């Protein structure tokens, strides 16, 4: 038995929780004793043995499938079966087969992906020599060799590298979406092993560390070598999913493999997502079962009464079986009617829903307007079961880096000695918008200029060329004060490796304006100043950290002059200025306000000439502080403060963190659709705020933007409460909670509270950790949901998921999470809908997402067009499907009162079988695939069209109740009008026409015509396919009917086709066609009247827009191009360093950080030209009280 379970991959033993990982290098036997996972990964769901039983088990967990199997069993009992077995078997097998094929295809794809990754090759040190091994065969404790541009095989402890100081450079795009390189450094002890295979093979260090977990930014462990213990942290660890860059080779020790790696730990379990309509359908199906039992009970009671009163009259020529009586007859009749009335939940409903969802998924895949040409990346619907939920989104949770921004910085503006540069004006002095046609500055005079650098203000170049000392000193500072590493591929072809893209942009700007950073050693920095090579002696680097928010360098120029150059957050620099700079500071402050108003990242620059004697004295104290074993950082900060004062202001720079194309317009459109956007980012607060303003999420028009950045739980609670009271003074201390209980599950839903005006909320990760505590999370939710925009800074991947889960759990709203890195995976999987940004190198988010595309701007088309249409189509489909099937079934119910409750069918058996499979299947599929209330252009013009989906207006329990009443009315018409028309009626030749078969034919024909006309009324957008399906289905009905009721079919299959001649005898009578016409008119008349009155008296937003479409009778004109809004703000951000602490110590460590000469591919191509999809959309207000169309 155990072998069978193991073959099916069913684990019969409970896995012991790992508390600490203990491993020894180059000792597989020792490490295997702990039974650690190897490096193979498995994302597939089934294998050869488990596919069929497990998939069928999952399918029969769906209540409807199990119900139809139960029906099939009932039909096999002769005493109660009133329908043939094939009426249930054929549809059931069709549904199961389609789902089996779909799941098999998906799992084969997962198997192929797993096989591709597991069979990658890597060099592993085995038995004293390097051997090429598959990734799947790598074990914990193995030493592997990585080469440049290779993926990191597993989570490794870095041992040695080809670079001095045991450094390596890695790219973490797969993990966090960031493409700027990061530095890792091995311990000096292991670094001395180099690439000596004998030394590496003899290495037997033991590692004790934390168990497998999903914390990407933390690692705790120790390495013991020859009895000596060394601390290990995250700086020594290479994570699976990273890529080695600009490093010839490195060796690493495998610590975690396969499913234990942090990458796979962050992937988490695949969550089966169901839409809100699915949940509603489950409730309705249970209601229908109860309603079916209710109808069957009434009919069985009627049968018992009829048998008791009238049944004895028929015993003479219809004798009863032994022991049969009225009670037994009623019991058997109950189950007979369960079979007959089962069409209230037709199995074809589920087939049609799958086809509908699959079709709408293909529309997303095929949409050329969501195809990114530059990266050759189409949009992709990776999950086909969530399309309609795209039309109900209320909250969007977005990552920043790589999602809203390209993570590309460009030098945009600057202020030097009180003069602002970078703005382009015309001859009249009016500002001109910069476009692709705007004349660019010619840097051909500078042979070392970066050809990709772009600037438009010619005045700045003229100032540099004219020898302005302030301007030249400004760019000299940018060329000297940084920790950038240069790489010169060939003579004059420079590449800069910057820890922060901001630094890279500023050094590149200095390079183009004539101050080229050429090379560096630990003691010198070499520049080319206006064509003249110049070498500065680097005496000290006063490094950046989050408290100082500035960086300084002290250099000696060739003439022996000492100068301190400093750059940092403007508020920090201004506090340390000499009084002589006060006037210049006022002018520069105005410029900084202007730059911040445009959403640029600002930085103040200052300098100070130093006295040689005082510097030597300071240098001695600096050396003492830097070698102190206690409070080293505090002592260094105090020493830095001494020399960084009485600075002279040079000016300010402004760097643009380039947004992806169309991001502000997209966010503006989504906000107009009443979708709230929350940004969850690991970046610092200033950076996140800047992006908020750049994206139009934070606006000056907002009444207030609350900043929550406290250090204790009580302070965080106080700030949240104060913010809530400001937004809604009448809000109570207790949250307005609506408690509900469904299927034994309790849920607490926090209701929305009224707020006057728009507000924003910015909260950092430290405060968020307190706010997410159980006793405070509802306070956070109340306050945040009152705000139009929420930005959470410095958040961890776990906190991202917790925020999404909080909203998902306590709000009646559909959530969407969008990101591009592995740190977004948990958030993407937690939300109702997960969207991955593809096209960059980071693909972890895409692999875990439900939908993916290359640019954030495509989100508005996904939601406002595809999502809205999918929701509209699904709701229209469900309303119509329930209507036609309830109407079909209720006619059976009324007929029961006229057939002695004998469970006789009112329709021909073949009509019952083909009604949902052929006669009405294609028209409703055509409706649900192609219908649209307005086209995509009008959907963009009026984002309010999205609101009904958020409010579940198109399909709900109330809508279902209306369908039930409508079907009841239609069934009364469809039964009693034909019954009255047929009763005591004769043909033209005087023969009797009131036989059962003629009535069945008339009733089923009236039904089919009536539901077809109703479908025509529900269709807003007619296509050739819709017309073909509708008229083709009606034609098919008459063709099949005349064929099945012909003499030939009766002679061949006498028992199966008893309705011989009924069609030709009945349908040639004028009163039959008049009856069909009358029943159709009576069925649709209330629908037409209701719609007419509602459009006149209480039109919906859809009615109003459709009226405008009819008035326009043409595609709306292209929206006018709007210039970017400028914001005048008193708030400025500091310089956004992406790393927590600088690399000044590394630069001045005494050994030069050599970087091998290598080619580098361009990480980012040029952005698209401004085409229609990145043009701002025009927004028109439609008041509900506006004039009727």
From TrEMBL:
Chain sites annotated for binding ATP: 399-401, 503, 544, 567, 601, 681-683, 794, 800, 823-824
Region annotation Disordered: where it falls in the sequence: 723-743
GO biological process, one term: Golgi organization
Catalytic activity: ATP + H2O + phospholipidSide 1 = ADP + phosphate + phospholipidSide 2
Gene Ontology molecular function terms on file: ATP binding; ATP hydrolysis activity; magnesium ion binding; phosphatidylcholine flippase activity
Taxonomy, superkingdom: Eukaryota
Keywords in alphabetical order: ATP-binding, Lipid transport, Magnesium, Membrane, Metal-binding, Nucleotide-binding, Translocase, Transmembrane, Transmembrane helix, Transport
UniProt protein name: Phospholipid-transporting ATPase
Source organism: Carassius auratus
